[in-house]
Amino acid sequence: MARLRTLMALERNNLAEERTALAQFRTGLALTLIAPPSIIIYFSTTFDLELPLFLNVFIYVLTTFIIAFGVFMVVRSYKEVSLIKDRKKNIKKKELEIINKSSKVNKLLDGCTYFRDICEEETED
């Protein structure tokens, strides 16, 4: 039971990491999608004004940096989520092995729907 409890704690930690990675994905996506329209709005509002060249260059460089950082966040968080999903699959396999090895644990968790779902997923793979 202690090993099973440890695996469930690991799974809970993986779920928290997955939530964090998905939040980073959303943030990166927002940065990537908001920056290009902001340049268009900047163009349209400052077209008649004669602003110094360094200010325009600074704004374009800053916006480009924001877009690049957003793309970087999206790619990095996507890789993290895929790694976390692989770890979750491994943990579920180990949980299933522990459940199948011990008849006492199997009897104890017989009515639990969570572990029935694990068994069904394992037979589908």
Q: In a few lines, what is going on in this structure?
A:
By secondary structure, the chain is mainly alpha-helical.
Structural topology:
Blueprint: H1 2-46, H2 53-101, H3 103-108, H4 113-124
Helix pairs in contact: 1-2, 2-4
Describe the model.
The chain is mostly helical and 125 residues long. The chain has one domain (2-89). The chain has helices at 2-46, 53-101, 103-108, 113-124. Helix 1 runs antiparallel to helix 2 (53-101) and helix 2 (53-101) crosses helix 4 (113-124). It is rod-shaped. The model has no long low-confidence stretch (mean pLDDT 83).
- Series of H and E elements: HHHH
The share of residues in helices is over 70%
**Extended strand count:** 0
Helix count equals 4
| N/C terminus separation | 25 Å
- Rg: 24 Å
Shape: rod-shaped
Low-confidence stretches: none
Number of domains: 1
- Report the sheet with the most strands, covering strand number, pairing sense and barrel closure: none
Strand content: under 5%
Q: Give the integer mean of the pLDDT values.
A: 83
The secondary structure category is mainly alpha
Characteristic key phrases:
single chain; 125 residues; mainly alpha; 4 helices; 90% helix; 0% strand
